[in-house]
Description:
The structure holds two protein chains of two kinds.
Chain A: H1 13-35, H2 41-58, H3 61-67, H4 82-89, H5 98-106, H6 113-116, H7 120-134, H8 139-142, H9 150-163, H10 175-183, H11 213-222, H12 237-240, H13 247-255, H14 261-267, H15 275-287, H16 317-325, H17 327-331, H18 336-339, H19 350-361, H20 376-386, H21 444-471, H22 480-494, H23 499-502, H24 504-520, H25 577-616, H26 619-640, H27 651-658, H28 661-670, H29 676-688, H30 690-696, H31 707-715, H32 719-730, H33 735-741, H34 743-762, H35 773-787, H36 803-810, H37 813-823
Chain B: E1 17-22, E2 27-35, E3 41-52, E4 55-66, E5 71-76, E6 88-89, H1 92-119
Amino acid sequence: MFRFQSLDEDCTLEEEDDGLIEEEDEIDQFNDDTFGAGAIDDDWQEEHKRLAGLDDGSGLGAGLGGGGGMGGESDLGGAFDSSSSHHHSSAGQLPLPPSLKFSLSSSGLPPPDVEDRAGEGGLAESLARLILEADPAIAGVGAAERPAPLPSSSGSSLSILQGLENPMVLPQPTSIPHLNQLHQHPHHPQHQLPPGPSSGLSPGPPSSSMLSYQQQQHLLRRGTGPMAQMNSHSIWENSMGFGPLSMTPGLITHMEDSPLMSIIKEVGLPKRPPQGRSDEGRDLSERVPPPRSSSPVIGSPPVRAVPIGTPPKQPMSHALNHQIHHPTAVHVRAPIQHRYPPPFPERLSPNTLLNLANSPLCRGPFPPGVGSVLSQIQRAQLLNSQVAGFPRGGPAPPLLPGGGFRPFYGGPPPPLGHRMGPPPPHCPPNHTPTIRHNTTHLHPQHRRMLTQRMQNRGVDRGRPGGDRRSRDPYSNLMSQKEKEWVTKIQMMQLQSTDPYLDDYYYQNYYEKMEKRQERERDSSKKEHTTKLITPQVAKVEHTYRPVQFAGSLGKLTVSSVNNPRKMIDAVVTSRTDDEEKREKQVWNKRRQILYTVEKMYSLLLEVQDFEKRFVQAPEEDREALLEQHKSRTLQLCNALREKEWDDRVSDEQCVMIMSVRKGKRLISRLLPFLPSPQAAAVVMAISRNLPALAKKDKQDQVLCWLVEPVAAVIQSLSSPALTDLLQELQGNEGQLASVLHNKFGVTLLYLILSEGERMQSSDSNCQLMDDNRWTELVFSVTRELLSVAPSLLSPPLFTPPNLLSLFSRYVDRQRLELLQDKLQISSLSR
Amino acid sequence: MNYVPGTASLIDDIDKKHLVLLRDGRTLIGYLRSIDQFANLVFHQTVERIHVGKKFGDIPRGIFIVRGENVVLLGEIDVDKPCDTVLQQVSIEEILEEQRLQQQSKQETEKVKMLALKDRGLSIPKADNLDEY
């Protein structure tokens, strides 16, 4: 009959019938003892008579019938119809409704003397007394009841108790006929719940006292299902408020309390844990949700709507109570780091720490009476009142969740109360014994020192400071909670993933001290060899992955310190070695060129300034200056040389220098200062490499700076040199064409030609015509000039006037005219 | 000490009389009422004490909240200990006047120095004036 059922009240009896048969076997033997061969028949008959007699008198007897374990009617009031109920129910298990419990408790449970009386007679008497107290209506009846022999005594007491189910409701005559109906199922499994919509009685959890051990176990396992009320009319339906399994133990715990204790002892139920604990546990276990319905104390933070750093507003007494007094909280221990990796980034909030801190601490300083109900604040106030002038004992919490102090120690935990400060067996009588600080994270030596210090100070400074502070009207503006909160934050800051890194000196100092002590004393005292491990927070690797929602455009705009938003996608591009080398080479060369240019520039500037200085300098210095000047000039020339021993101006060097804009400028300024052969050489080099230079100059377009100095040089050239120059300019195939494309080139060409012409015209015995080179060259030039497309021909900087006369010498009229048009040479100079 | 054994904490200094020196050179004396994790301090019945030479003057300031980063040092004042000091207390006006004179003379010397340096073509960049200590 105690098959587990759902708690809905509408389940029918048919369902019950099926499930209960299998259980019959298990509980059978006990049932046999109680109701079968083991039972003594006489009892119930006598009982019945008695109760029937009573029934007439008080009208309660009938009520009992239904209550016979069958979850009889609510009408059953007759506590004394046990025999009938027994008989009828044939069920070994008689439910004891919760109301009974209450009624019993309300009646003022008799002191243990009830339990003491193990005798059968005494049992019944005590029960009767209880009943009498509970219900004055049956006071008169109680006396009539006589105790029955053991097996049925349980039945009788049960029935009595059952009768008390409904102390206020008088039994009705209909109950008995109902019972009779019930009896028609004599072979029902004895544990079957009585059928009948009439059974308004909520069976309640079976009286633990009446059950045999096994039965009880079954009951427990099946939970409080069968207690569910089938008849909605029952007034006991909701009284239980059947909850999850955990309710049952509590109730049963309570059940066995006081009057039934003796019964339990007789029946041989397993002993319950001691009273005190059950008191506490019972009180709170009803309020506290079952063990795992909420997040465990250890490891995960309490869910807080406010961020970590806000100061506390109200006492979190309820939460604290829950967490502190939950019986399992403290006992969960190592391996802390593995089992409960902190789910949130590696730190505990001050609030968590606050809770954790108090769980071990609350045990300490308080007398048992204070116990569980006080909140943090209240406890603090208590302490405060006890010890004026000292704030509440240190709540410095362990920095790992839970009471897991043990993992901090490699060796056996030190015998000196690892949770509290060392117990002061030696402390002076006026020491404030109640203040315990959480010094677990400290080295044992350190801790000892601190306590000693405290003791000393406690004596001296306690009183006067306290007095004054109590008189100060503005004192304690900072509440205890706030102080603790600040302390928590400070402790949090001490959390360290690597104590040797963060607190090197502390660790080392105490290590040394330990070693020293070992040397001094023998290592018999184990505490000294305990290795201290400061509280560490497990190093959790955090890889930041930016939060992204699938299918969304772009990234989240909300970011915080702990999850920053990725702003830039910095990608490392690695170039191959070769490329890098090449690039480096290029840069190096350029740098070198620039460097050379700079050096030459400085020389040049000095040379250029020479005149000025020479004039300004006094007489005696002039020679020196002159010397200097000469040397500088020499240096400049040398700079143009590629190699030290080579006298010639290096082409390469020139070109190199001229590849840089500044270099071109340099050359243009330099040319006037160079001695003529070298200047000529430079100009040669320029003309020789003109295409290359022109190409490099595309960006800068500064070649034209060179025109003037080059012109000057050209004018100083001798005819063969000039011829050579022209030849150079023409150079290889197609060079002239490219020359003509370039402004400077054209200008240079004209310069040369004009110079040639001047030579020819001015000097009759000029050697220009001595060999045909000049003529040929001119011819080729003219040819080129004629052939080149006019668009490609770049206009020169200026057109020397005597070109026309030059050309007129070498070309016929027709071509001359063509040239004229093309080059726009006119007799008028431009 | 009580709360965090083995470390230093301001918790134990609460409701005691303290002297605090700030980064801008001010000296405040008052009852420390409240702190926080940044060592921001709340002072009650604060008095600003100005020292010039051997004289000092107290200016009552009321309630002060000091941001933690501006504190140079902070020390408890033992009210019981007899105060035997050569310093002479003067009135507020007098001490302010003295202070002003002191500042003035300081500025003058500074000016002269700068001028001398400038003549030599040197210039010392002006240091950050916020922290005088």
